[in-house]
Write a structure and sequence with these properties.
mainly alpha; 0% strand; 95 residues; 87% helix; elongated
């Protein structure tokens, strides 16, 4: 097995799988699941910013802000990936 294949999705491998109809459905489900996980993490961290700020723990509030920012960035990646896959699916249905 190639070491590149065992790691995360790189651009070439993702595009190869994105244009394969069978793999695309798996990618859509995986991207949707990951996006929802990071959305939950973002919302939890966002709420904890205010809870820790009101309880007088500024360090934990700043750490929650960092966690929510990181979760938002990763969630945006999977949301963009999901949007791209859905566009490909729609274009394939039209043709």
């Amino acid at each position: 097995m190639d070491l590149k294949e065992s790691g995360g999705l790189n651009t070439e491998r993702f595009l190869r799988k994105a244009f394969d109809p069978q793999c695309r459905e798996k990618l859509i489900r995986a991207s949707l699941l990951r996006r929802n996980i990071y959305l939950t993490l973002f919302l939890t961290a966002f709420i904890s910013i205010f809870v820790t700020a009101l309880s007088g723990a500024p360090l934990l509030s700043v750490l929650s802000l960092g966690l929510s920012s990181l979760a938002l960035v990763v969630m945006t990646k999977y949301d963009t990936q999901l949007f791209f896959l859905k566009i490909i699916s729609r274009k394939e249905i039209e043709h």
